[in-house]
Amino acid sequence: MMRTIKVIGKGKIAVKPDMIRLYVNKEELCHEYEDTLRKSTEDTELLKDLFEKLGFQRKDLKTVYFNVDTEYESYQDRDKSWKRRFEGYKYIHHMKIEFASDNKKLGQVLYALAHSSSKPEFSIEYTVADVEKCKNELLHKAIEDSIQKAQVLTTAANVKLGEIQAIDYSWGEIDFVTKPMNEMRLMECTECEMSAPAAYDIDIEADDIDVTDTVTVVWTIA
Predict the structure, then answer these.
(1) The pLDDT value given to residue 125
(2) How far apart are the first and last CA of the chain?
(3) What is the pTM of this model?
(4) What is the pLDDT of residues 71-84, one digit of tens each?
(5) Which residue among 35, 86, 89, 191 is the one 20 to 30 A from 209 at the CA level?
(6) Are 13 and 134 a contacting pair, CB within 8 Å?
(7) Greatest CA span in the chain, whole angstroms?
(8) Do 220 and 4 meet the contact criterion of CB atoms below 8 Å apart?
(9) What angle do helix axes 33-53 and 103-114 make, rounded to 10 degrees?
(10) Closest CA to 114 of 35, 57, 198, 207
């Protein structure tokens, strides 16, 4: 019977974020369904106009989620029973736009959004442009770690490490994201001093993104 050893290798890297991912959320309630759709289109076009003036392409603003649903309000009738009253149709539109990490650009974008007539909600996070490169580096380090552990174990057990029989990896999604600004800090940003017309003075140095991943390797031993 073939003898084997199974070792879990752990890879860990710290990645410097080089991209800003900005989420923009809009929602509106209208009494008529057609008005809701029209309003969502108008608001989206206003946002695209805003970003276009800042040097982006209109197609850079991507839809993450869009939905239109009925809205009802609960109320207590004269007989003390609770009933529902139709309020209208509400649209929810979540969008995102990404650009290279740049505090000056970020200051311009936040200023424009804060002073937009559509008054959208927005939040930011930092990520990396080349996610696949980071994933490959992480896997490489995980394999290296498993080899090192296997060599230590077999040496200590006075057995010989043979060939690899299997490599098991989950292929799960890894989120290369850091959020240095929470919702409250972002709201406070609208009160920052301006360093130039139509821009906020932003001074953010996002921390490295620490990520880990594991891989299971099976060797024969003799």
Answers:
(1) 93
(2) 11
(3) 0.79
(4) 999 988 888 888 88
(5) 191
(6) yes
(7) 85
(8) yes
(9) 140
(10) 198
